[in-house]
Amino acid sequence: MATTARTPITARTVRMLMSVAALLFLGLALLIRAIDDGALRQYSGTALYASMVWAMVLFLWPRVAPAPAGVLAIAFCWVVELAQLTGVPADLSARSVAARLALGVQFDPVDLAWYPAGVVPLMVLHHLVRARHRRNGQNVAIGLTGLPDVPEKRTGATAS
After folding, report:
1. Residue range 47-67, pLDDT digits in tens
2. Which long-range contacts (CB under 8 A, 24 or more apart) does 120-124 make?
């Protein structure tokens, strides 16, 4: 069986993929919001919000490993949810649709369980991608080294 060369996954690639993923999560959430007004709308929106936060974490830190990425995403979601107990998000949401979508309006303890539902499957996928690339001997930007991007050493003449 012939092996095929794969392009390493760089931080730039991860950022591009996470931007696309976040837009897909948002699009799916808005589509569900447009066609349903019941439990599906509520809980899928909560889980997809958490998925977007996970994509944001990897966009900001493309080398973060799956567990820290998931913990950061879930913790952020829980902080936003708990902040709803203060009334500040409700005040901001009254003034802005974007704030209402990003911060919510009122605390719902059930949401605390739905945030992990939106993140844990992505953590598993992230782990599987990392493991596959490790098996193939590739240094993938998604959480393998924890080091900043360093351009590969190039050989040959350079322009002066």
Report:
1. 999 999 999 999 999 999 999
2. 120/70, 122/51, 122/54, 122/70, 123/54, 123/66, 123/67, 123/69, 123/70, 124/66
